[in-house]
Structure formats: structure tokens, C-alpha cells
Amino acid sequence: MQGNNVHLPKKMMKYLFFSCSFCLMLLLSACISTAPVAIPQDFDWEGHRGCRGLLPENSVPAFLKALDYPEVNVLELDLAVSKDGQLIVSHEPWFNAAICQKPNGDSVTTQQAEHLLLYQMTVAEIQQYDCGSRGNVRFPEQQKMKTHKPTLKEVVTAVRTQRPDKAGIRWNIEIKSEPAWDGVRHPPIVAYAQMVLDEVRALGIAQQCILQSFDERPLRYLHEKDASLTLALLVENTRSFEQNIQSLGFQPAIYSPYYQLVTKRLVRRCKAGGIKLVPWTVNNVADMRALIRLGVNGIITDYPNRIGEVAPPAQ
């Protein structure tokens, strides 16, 4: 560093620009934040990891609870793979030290967490761990309860049998993968993507689900295998919309960025391309209203219980 000049990396400067732009948008809309907002009939309200703000994430109780809120029409979840080749509903391909404890009741330590790989354990072994009794300090409203990481089949079956009134529910399924994880934390990417495709077909939800990922590789493979699939590109980088679509190599049905990256220009670009814009993860009611006014097509939230506050009932 020379003198008093501070040089920020270009990536950081770009991120700060987008964050500041979004914050400015919220400030400008503050005066109308409590005014009714028109929500399109085909708007997607997605329960993130079920309803992480209320019940343990990615658990059967959380998905069933999310369906108690009539606006929720999509259940969002994450996938990992077990040693015996089953799709496990889990945000990480290991046991998160912040929320999980071992079969003997001891907490999983940070040092142990990433060595407790689901890909090296059978379903029976995985489901001995409790990922709900400790709660989650980031979500103080979350109810503590003993629960395990379910299989995808277990979740879909539970919704079908316990909530037959929600037969039209759709699924937003994230393939959690990274190149460095191939063969170590999950199967090689082609085998992994094919496993997901085979399972959603076997469960009869292939046409009711969105398959999403930050990793472009499984999306490319799935697009080539079946063009009828609804695919979503998850985005947390500060590259332009055009750069991300060019990198992906095809136009996905859905573009799903971190919510503070949403701008009027991005909304226009998505609309021009016929791409739905569904940001994640939006937990503040004022933010939800601001995004809807901008023209997004859906919102992913940890708190489906707050959706009712977004559009106050008519007087």
C-alpha cells in the first residue's frame, strides 16, 4: 500500500456497487414499503430448505410445515449422495457443525465436520445423526426437534401421503456439486446428474420440478439429455447476466441470483429473453415488496409465514 490510497480488488468493487445499488433501491422505496403490492397469479413462493426460519432445515417436518402456508407452491431443497447411492436431502455433503450432533449426542466439531462425508456413509449411518435438536443460532425462531437427513424419496413420499391436498406442489432441487468434489464428496458429475434425473423420473416429478445448481456442468448435461427439463442457474458472482449465460452455453428457464444482485436492468434482460427471475434468499418483507415491484417472478424465503405480510388484504 502506498500513501493513503486503498485499492480494492475489481471483484469486490463490483460487488459493493451491486449491494449499494440494491440498498439505494430499498431506501427509495421505503416510503411505499407498506403499500399493497400486486402479486402475479403465477408468482412462485418457494420454501427454502422447507422453512428454515421455523423448523430444522431440509427435514421432513420443515417441508410439511411450509405447506401450511397457502401461498407456497414450490419446495426448495438440496441434494447430496450417500455411500450406497441414495440421494440425501442436505445442504452440505457433510454434517454441519453448527446444527448437527453425533449418534451418541456429542456435537459435531468444526474440525470433524468436513471429514464426516455423506458420500462415505450409508443412509442407515447418516440417519443416526440428529440435525435438529440443537437448533440454529442464525434462526432464533426455529423450533428445536430431533430429526435426520432424509432421502429425496422419503420427502416426496411424506408430502404425497400426508398432504394429498398439495398434489400440485412443485420442487426446486439443487444439485450441490463442485469440480474439486468429484469422486470425493459426490460421484463424478455425469453419474451424479444422471442419478438425479433417474430419481425424479422414478418419483414421477420430473415435469413438476426445477433442477438448479451453481455448478454449470450438471445443468449442461441435463439440458443435453432432456430439453424438456426446467433448469435454473444459481448465481452469486458479480459477472454480468450476459457473461453468465454465455458461460453456461444455453438459455435456462430460470435465472436465480442472490437477491441483492437484482437490478432493473437484470429484470429487463431476463424478460427480454423469456427467462424467469427468481432471487434467493429473501427474508425481509420490505425486500420482498421491493423485488416484486421490480418485476421478479418468484422469491425463495426461509420464512413462508411472512408471505402474508407482503400483500396486505384489501380493506
Structure description:
Strands 1, 2, 3, 4, 5, 6, 7, 8 and 9 form a nine-stranded mixed beta sheet that branches. This protein is 32% helix and 14% strand. The longest helix has 19 residues, at 10-28. Strand 5 (209-213), helix 7 and strand 6 form a beta-alpha-beta unit. It has helices spanning 10-28, 60-66, 110-113, 123-126, 152-162, 189-202, 216-225, 241-248, 264-272, 285-294, 307-310; strands at residues 44-48, 74-81, 87-89, 170-175, 209-213, 230-235, 254-257, 276-277, 298-301. The model is unreliable at 1-8 (pLDDT under 50). The protein starts with 9 loop residues before the first helix and ends in a 5-residue tail after the last helix. With 315 residues, it is of the alpha/beta class. It has eleven helices and nine strands. Helix 6 (189-202) packs across helix 7.
Keywords:
single chain; alpha/beta; 14% strand
Q: What's the rounded overall pLDDT mean?
A: 92
Q: Helix count, per DSSP?
A: 11
Give the tally of β-strands. Answer: 9
Helix amount: 25-40%
β-strand percent reads 5-15%
Measured between the Cα atoms of the first and last residue, the distance is 60 Å
Radius of gyration of CA atoms, rounded to a whole number: 20 Å
From the spread of the alpha carbons, the general shape counts as: globular
**What is the H/E order?**
HEHEEHHHEHEHEHEHEHEH
Describe the biggest sheet?
9 strands, mixed
Helix- and strand-based class? alpha/beta
Which spans of ≥5 residues are poorly predicted at pLDDT below 50? Answer: 1-8
